[in-house]
Amino acid sequence: xxxxxxxxxxxxxxxxxxxxxxxxxxxxxxxxxxxxxxxxxxxxxxxxxxxxxxxxxxxxxxxxxxxxxxxxxxxxxxxxxxxxxxxxxxxxxxxxxxxxxxxxxxxxxxxxxxxxxxxxxxxxxxxxxxxxxxxxxxxxxxxxxxxxxxxxxxxxxxxxxxxxxxxxxxxxxxxxxxxxxxxxxxxxxxxxxxxxxxxxxxxxxxxxxxxxxxxxxxxxxxxxxxxxxxxxxxxxxxxxxxxxxxxxxxxxxxxxxxxxxxxxxxxxxxxxxxxxxxxxxxxxxxxxxxxxxxxxxxxxxxxxxxxxxxxxxxxxxxxxxxxxxxxxxxxxxxxxxxxxxxxxxxxxxxxxxxxxxxxxxxxxxxx
Length: 367
What we know:
The protein has 367 residues and is an all-alpha fold. The protein is built from 19 helices and no strands. It starts with 9 loop residues before the first helix and ends in a 6-residue tail after the last helix.
């Protein structure tokens, strides 16, 4: 365990580390061109270093329910299995089987380290698969995303499931591997059926303009009809008992209301996709699939935005945001001084993460 950092400062250390990495990367974009050999050598070495350090920093954190919320629940389940307990759940049984298996030969600290690896390493895999030598830029966007920390230390099972999904769609030339990994992601967390459904629909009808109009339509429909959508999706049995409970509890007393701040954050990827596809005429079938999948899953969240824990539905699109924003810039030259433009995007994207932490979360954790 990494115990030399007080738990109340654990999140802050991550945030200030990301701030330093982002600022240093921005300065680097001013000094070297993107395709300079020195730059490529630098980002590959630094990228591997950051990948390794973040896996160990997150994976070897002390067990805490106060600062990492659901981590204590996972730890209790692990200890139960280590003592010889039977499987606790019929749903998402693969994750519990995975936990029970690990409990037979791993310590709890190594288990959480393995979870951190399964969460972070697939982000490297998809970045490397799509962008080769320039993988660092996409990977950096993943780790400075607003939702990254929460699903590394709290919603662990959901985070791993979304990362396995990313790993799956990195196999564009091997549909069998893709299908196996997408299926595995649903067995870790049933909610992954939504992004898988969205991805399959996009493969059948790959039209960004249509899905963009659907996303835009979801905003007034959600504002006008309020809790109707939560009731409708609950009646349809979406998401099983647990997620259905989140839906059915929305729209009433204590409802978080319409989250304009989260909608603003979601719009980053929507604006990026619109700008690259329709203004810059960027043509790439894979990018269209990624953008369409994001639009469909995010539109669903907008419809149920008033539900309690609606951030869990938002994450079903947010985990793709980083790659949707940077993909065209790593595939094609679209601007003069594109390397500098990339640095500016880091700054804006991470600014929201840092702002939300400093306003909403730093006091909560005493950082």
